[in-house]
């Protein structure tokens, strides 16, 4: 029996999602598989590739023949080079950033809209605020109140001028 490592197509029209499977070469493309050893979703950005490396190495060592598409996928993960004894790929596999928990984001927005709590700072505003906080303790405490007092008086005087005029 000739065993192949190939892709089993799943998903919708124009949204393919594949499973990497070990199957008899005589079975249909989407037929019965011996073992599922990974997934490949090409439409995501970046493409999602998850492979059980130990199982791939086992099946390659016992003589399973990968299809051309599977060889390309295994080359990106480094499993094909590991099997052939070649150096690992120079470019690391791209990984999508972790998604925020949708429920937590919704609850925080709902509380902020209800006025129960302050909205949590976003990542961008947190990065901007962090350096400012780091610089504030470095200044001398005696200079800080003196520098702020005249500025507060000037704004009060300017506000008074606007009301009179």
From TrEMBL:
Residue ranges, compositional bias (Basic and acidic residues): 136-146
GO CC list: cytoplasm; small ribosomal subunit
Renumbered residue ranges of the record's region Disordered: 110-165
One Pfam family hit: Ribosomal_S16
Record-linked InterPro entries: Ribosomal_bS16, Ribosomal_bS16_dom_sf
GO biological process: translation
UniProt entry tagged with the keyword Ribosomal protein: yes
Record-linked NCBIfam families: PRK14520.1 (NF011093), S16 (TIGR00002)
Name of the protein: Small ribosomal subunit protein bS16
């Amino acid at each position: 029996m000739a065993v192949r490592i190939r892709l089993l197509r799943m998903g919708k029209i124009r949204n393919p999602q594949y499973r990497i499977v070990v199957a008899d070469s005589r079975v249909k493309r989407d037929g019965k598989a011996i073992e599922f050893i990974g997934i490949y979703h090409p439409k995501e950005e970046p493409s999602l590739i998850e492979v059980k490396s130990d199982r791939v190495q086992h099946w390659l060592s016992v003589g399973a023949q990968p299809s051309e598409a599977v060889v390309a996928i295994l080359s990106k993960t480094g499993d094909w080079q590991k099997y052939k004894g070649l150096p690992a790929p120079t470019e690391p596999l791209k990984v999508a950033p972790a998604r925020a928990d949708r429920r937590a984001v919704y609850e925080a927005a709902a509380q902020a809209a209800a006025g129960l709590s302050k909205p949590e700072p976003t990542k961008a505003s947190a990065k901007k605020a962090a350096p400012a906080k780091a610089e504030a303790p470095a200044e001398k405490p005696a200079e800080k109140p003196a520098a702020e007092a005249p500025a507060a008086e000037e704004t009060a005087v300017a506000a008074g001028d606007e009301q009179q005029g």
